[in-house]
UniProtKB/TrEMBL annotation, chains A, B:
Entry-linked Pfam families: Bac_luciferase
Domain annotation Luciferase-like: ranges: 26-379
SUPFAM superfamilies in the cross-refs: Bacterial luciferase-like (SSF51679)
The protein's name: LLM class flavin-dependent oxidoreductase
EC number: 1.-.-.-
UniProt similarity note: Belongs to the NtaA/SnaA/DszA monooxygenase family.
Keyword field: Flavoprotein, FMN, Monooxygenase, Oxidoreductase
Record carries keyword Transferase: no
GO molecular function annotations of the record: oxidoreductase activity
Length: 441, 441
């Protein structure tokens, strides 16, 4: 059988693009309107998407007030409450939520994802993030942000504790014999009793093993420790390489690390995030994006660039290239490396870079359903990706264009499913169900 | 207008009564079956209940394995994920979830409840608990449990931080002017910058002010600091006095503390938890309870008594009264006081006490719809309560008996609403919407 694409949606309620709330026809109130989110995910499910994934931050983004006041990102649903609610109005599509290993507790995280997996019938996925926003630390009692390397060390142990807690009960532990009165077999309950560098967690978890064994493990990280963590733990990666060559290198890099970590590279799907802008012609699609970018005020643009750099860029000369010697910070290293690469590749001025970052800076596929399907097919065949994490430029139209125009084209080519093959997210992604480490089959 | 009752449901998926999963017709799989929970809450909504409230624990309950294996409490949905999912399949009924002030972070708690309030259109309530289960501490990196007094001090500050975060945005802060590009008015955003004994939280919250201003504040505590915390902060109390006299005293005690805390006693509704067992005759109702209690194994019974006492009771003589000198622990003081009171009031042996605690130890209203409606009316008129927190002895039948037999009787007497008066939980409870402390109207 020839290879097929996996497609997930990566969203904010109004769009990841900061100008999107001003686009003609946009739902500017989507941050408060559960009905809009329900309509989005139900359309994606009808289009047979693998999963729906809501972006997250643990603070109002740190930008100057002149930019902040123009940003629809200041308010959003908390992803866990949102995804649980969406689980109740869908049947098949996967549900990916973010939980921070720096600012949350393994017991809480293990329990919530197990619960979402039971509620949804096996559709939960955990996006492991270490939280690069320095302002988040100040919302959790820390005056300084936790250092990058230590965040990843903690993330690795956090993962071990969470998966260990998910394995508290054997799959067949719960007997429920009303006659004898035995609810579960205590021989099939494991007390984790984890004592590590970062965490001391006794367990067991007070919820049965998730439907999927473990919810699907998701990661984004492109930094060195991020790639290593992905190779060791992730089953779905939505890293955002900027072009085919970078994507192929990243794909080979992450999958190449897996055997040394004792893993089969087929057990990780890499779905690069790509903003998809569709027109009846390539020129029309480009014009849509240009109009969208024009809706981003320069004050917001320069603030976004500052976040990406981890450094205030408002003092830079807008019409010169980026200065060379920007001081290091604890912010995301992969984010900064991407800015520097983009600036050099496209020879952009500070203003041009800022406009790109103020809108959406990542990979964009811009064209007709046919040209975009061609690109996706190339990426799949050249081992640059196993599919895509779709970013919609504006909502609802940008999503409708994908589900109504691009997906049918992919289906005609045999590149995408016409119906779900199974009922769990693992089944959609072709991932096996993890064995219980304490109760092997 | 004469006084009317408020009714909420306090539940575990299978019932709070530990023998309930074995009762004829019980849904023994309700801990895993979202469909059952959906049917329960939709029935309660059709009966016009004020709110649905899911019990919670942050550990597998600490009982000997011989008892544990008989307990349906070892697994349950996490309440937040469950209530969010239930929000999507209901329109009017309130949704109360527990969050621990000892083992969670104010920023997370403020954000999740605000999100649930937005998703549900103003139906969220926060049950503030300090978590008395010593095993919970060991799931969160602590080897010793946090001392009782310190837990309440932390709870009080936690409340101040959470409500301060909910007030981050003025109600009219979000402008969303697509033409000018201004999303919100930064003059109407408050940075909390809390620095206290227990917490340092900068803010602002990254979600707009909840629909209800603040989700409704709920508490159970009957200990001295619990009552004081309720008088200072709570809007709904589900304390479980064992009889009318105790209830009147508690009602007067908590409401009597409110003026000194600068609050109007009408702004707190006290709804004692009561297990309701309905029969066609009083004798039939009593027989149902006797059969239910008989389904609790003695090993579970003695373990439950040990939890209530905070002390292992398995060595006590089953046929003697409770020994006098049981050592003090950090477990819930109000729980232990209740055991001692019940033992003395009803002159119960250890075995009898254990059987009561192994099933459901709290207040029970047992009789016909008419006798129970009489009791409820008496409690309301004698200022022992503003309604009841209904505990169902077994499910689904125990719930159906309440919604199909008791509620119509209460409605005939004009004691309970025939339709919702408003759309938010505050409106159901007759509670005013709190002013924003930073942006007074």
């Amino acid at each position: 059988m020839s290879k097929t694409l996996h497609l997930t949606a990566f969203m904010r309620p109004v769009s990841l693009h900061t100008g999107a709330w001003r686009y003609p026809g946009a739902y500017a109130d989507a941050n408060f309107n559960f009905g809009h989110l329900k309509s989005f995910i139900q359309k994606l499910e009808r289009a047979k998407f693998d999963a729906f994934f809501m972006a997250d931050h643990l603070a109002v983004l740190n930008m100057p007030v002149e930019a902040l006041k123009r940003s629809h990102t200041v308010t959003s649903f908390e992803p866990f409450t949102l995804l649980s609610a969406l689980a109740a109005v869908t049947d098949k599509i996967g549900l990916a939520a973010t939980a921070s290993t720096t600012f949350d507790e393994p017991y809480h995280v293990a329990r919530r994802f197990a619960s979402l997996d039971h509620i949804s019938g096996g559709r939960a996925a955990w996006n492991i993030v270490t939280t690069s926003n320095p302002d988040a630390a100040r919302n959790f009692g820390l005056s300084e942000h936790v250092e990058h390397g230590e965040r990843y060390q903690r993330a690795r142990e956090f993962f071990d504790v969470v998966t260990g807690l998910w394995d508290s009960f054997a799959d067949d532990a719960i007997i429920r014999d009303q006659e004898s009165g035995i609810f579960f077999d205590p021989e099939k309950l494991h007390v984790l009793d984890h004592k590590g560098e970062e965490f001391s967690v006794r367990g067991p978890l007070n919820i049965a093993r998730p439907v999927q064994g473990w919810p699907v493990i998701v990661q984004a990280g492109q930094s060195e420790p991020g790639k290593q963590l992905a190779a060791e733990t992730a089953e779905l990666v939505f890293a955002a390489p900027r072009d085919l060559a970078t994507a192929k290198a990243l794909y080979a890099d992450i999958k190449g690390r897996m055997p040394a970590a004792g893993r089969n590279p087929a057990h990780l799907k890499i779905l690069p995030a790509a903003m998809i802008v569709i027109g009846d012609s390539v020129d029309e699609a480009k014009a849509k994006r240009a109009h969208l970018d024009s809706l981003v005020h320069y004050d917001s643009a320069i603030a976004s660039l500052s976040i990406a750099l981890g450094h205030d860029a408002s003092g830079f000369d807008p019409d010169a290239p980026l200065p060379d010697n920007i001081p290091d910070t604890n912010a995301s290293k992969s984010g900064r490396a991407q800015v520097l690469r983009l600036a050099e590749q496209e020879k952009l001025t500070v203003r041009q870079l800022a406009q790109r970052y103020g809108g959406y800076a990542g990979l964009a596929l811009i064209g007709t359903p046919k040209t975009i399907a061609d690109e996706m097919e190339t990426w799949l065949n050249e081992e640059a990706s196993d599919g895509f994490t779709c970013v919609f430029p504006f909502l609802p139209q940008g999503l409708d264009d994908v589900t109504e125009k691009l997906v049918p084209e992919l289906q005609r080519r045999g590149l995408f499913r016409k119906d779900y093959e199974g009922s769990t997210l693992r089944e959609h992604l072709g991932l096996s169900r993890p064995a219980n480490r304490f109760f092997p089959a």
